[in-house]
Amino acid sequence: MHKEFLMGNEAIALGAIAAGVKLVAGYPGTPSTEVLETVAKRNPGNIHVEWSVNEKAAMEVAAGAAYSGARAMVTMKQVGLNVASDPLMSLEYVGVKGGMVVMVADDPGPISSQTEQDTRTFAMFAKVPVFDPTSVSEAYEMIQEAFDFSEKYGTPVFFRCTTRVDHGYEAITVKDAGEYRETTAEGFVKDSSRWVIFPRLSLKNHGLIEKRNRDLTAVLSEYPRNEIQRENGRYGKDSDRKGIASHGISYMYTLDSVDSENHVRLLKVATPFPFPEELALRFLDGLDEVLCIEELDPVIERALLQICGKHHLSVKIHGKLTGDIASAGENTLLSVSRAIHSFLGLEEVPMPAAPDVPLPVRPPVLCAGCPHRASFYAVKQAMKGRKTIYCGDIGCYTLGNAMPLDMCDTCLCMGAGINIAQGVGHLDKETKCFAFVGDSTFFAAGITGVVNAFYNQADMTLVILDNSTTAMTGHQPHPGTGRTVMGQVVEKVSIEKVLRAIGLTTVETVNPLDYEIARDTIKRVAEEPGVKAVIFRSPCIAMTKPAGRSTVDAETCIGCRKCIRELGCPALIIKDERAFIDASLCTGCTLCEQVCPVGAIGGGKKNEE
């Protein structure tokens, strides 16, 4: 054993390695990404690790390993669970042989997501047990217990963290390599009565799952990470008949907020489904009121209300449903402290002093030199004066919605822009419909949309923004990069060949930093009937070094501000009534040089593929 200072996601990864995991598959998405990356980095050499093409594929790859008796883990963020839900819902009916953990990182806030969905609620819907750690150290231990639990009961299990645990840090004790659990897999054993899902099998297993989950309420009541603190404290104060139930990072906030002089009883819920009912009954015994402090859905609150109704307990339950806890957003130490002080009738928590200097406003914006800016600008100029719709997608390029580009009219979920553009086009023949999608997202969720467009005779222009990486989540490889997360060099999957195989006859590849060529290509291609594609290919500036930086000749500059008004590059500012380029930000992409009407900017050298 030794100590390491670890991020929560790193601790989860090391815990999985210590548990003897043999396969880890996933799709990158903040705040989950570092789990798989850490397994790849710390791989003792006997674990298959992959960035799968999407979460559905990852779930199915992991299921195959678990069918073979190996311990497997699949990683994703909460919106990725939507993609993986198709195989998962059936997988619970089939079950697994090796331990299988579905690590899902929820994002209260949301900080970097479209939704605030709660995996605890999804777990109840899917009938899959869920583990919910409160800290980095507990996450390390609990992931190992989750594998044991999964294997014992033959079911996949959720391991649900939130951003503050995933990205928190703690010095924890971890196992040395010699202490890792040795696991073996016997391989897949043919048994169609078990592994082939038919209605008769589903009906039988559904009943068994319901019984198992009822039985687990008692089993999990004895799970030591579900616990009651101050259970026997009776000191004659009002707070002695009050309790607080919490989970995850909110439980840590609760511990920090409850004064030792207030003998309020505490319930920590580490397995919100199946809910530890017997433990909850012990917690509720003798209490008049309970405050449920949780993030996102009122899972604990509803469970306690149900238990009180079932057992005819006259305990008043407070929480999100009563307005005592905010119904949306993440909890903070301050919000939890205020809720507890109000619940216990204590003095209000004072507001922290406001900073003397206001913090600078930092609106989200594409990086200086980002090739997506050039792509958006070329399309915008090519379609000037035309009735258009620009359907966006999930990625860095969603920031194309910001002014002055204003090039993202819709954004729903990964791959949706391609199909939304079709829907608009079928009903409005006068609108020129564009769908923007990144290279990584094209492989993850875009190909089927293109097939749908071609098959159903849509009239649209597909613009693929290929910067040769999965940039938004930290530059992970994908099928078009020619390398895997384990460093293997593999054959690239050609986007051009995929599109032509679908049936597209017009597929053009252009460097968006060649402004006039890019603009004229869009003008020409957009006029063609049917489904056509333009691939704007230029590497992400975070992965390349500037070959030269642009500068402004103040004598030539006329102060028209066209470069600033039309591009919105953060490296371009006004200084002494003239355009000025911040050399610390400039990448020398040359887009501003090509836009300047008087040729006052020069010196840059654009990146080539």
Task: Describe the protein's architecture and organization.
With 609 residues, this protein is α/β, with parallel strands linked by helices. It has 4 domains: 2-197, Rossmann fold, CATH 3.40.50.970; 227-344, 3-Layer(aba) Sandwich (Rossmann fold), CATH 3.40.50.920; 371-543, Thiamin diphosphate (ThDP)-binding fold, Pyr/PP domains (Rossmann fold); 551-602, Alpha-Beta Plaits (2-Layer Sandwich), CATH 3.30.70.20. It is built from 20 helices and 22 strands. β4, α4 and β5 (100-106) form a beta-alpha-beta unit. The longest helix has 21 residues, at 199-219. The protein is globular, with a radius of gyration of 27 Å.
Essential attributes:
609 residues, alpha/beta, Rossmann fold, 4 domains, six-stranded parallel sheet, five-stranded mixed sheet, 20 helices, 22 strands, 17% strand, globular
Sum this structure up briefly.
This protein is of the alpha/beta class and 609 residues long.
How is this fold's topology laid out?
Elements: E1 2-7, H1 8-18, E2 23-26, H2 33-41, E3 48-51, H3 55-67, E4 72-77, H4 78-94, E5 100-106, H5 119-126, E6 130-131, H6 136-153, E7 157-162, H7 163-166, E8 169-174, H8 192-195, H9 199-219, E9 227-229, E10 242-246, H10 248-257, E11 265-268, H11 277-284, E12 289-293, H12 299-310, E13 316-318, H13 333-344, H14 371-382, E14 388-391, H15 416-427, E15 432-438, H16 439-455, E16 460-466, H17 495-502, E17 507-510, H18 515-526, E18 531-537, E19 551-552, H19 562-567, E20 572-575, E21 578-581, H20 591-595, E22 601-602
Parallel strand pairs: 2-3, 2-4, 4-5, 5-7, 6-7, 10-11, 10-12, 12-13, 14-15, 15-16, 16-18, 17-18
Antiparallel strand pairs: 1-8, 9-11, 19-22, 20-21
Helix pairs in contact: 1-2, 1-6, 3-4, 4-9, 10-13, 11-12, 14-18, 15-16, 16-17
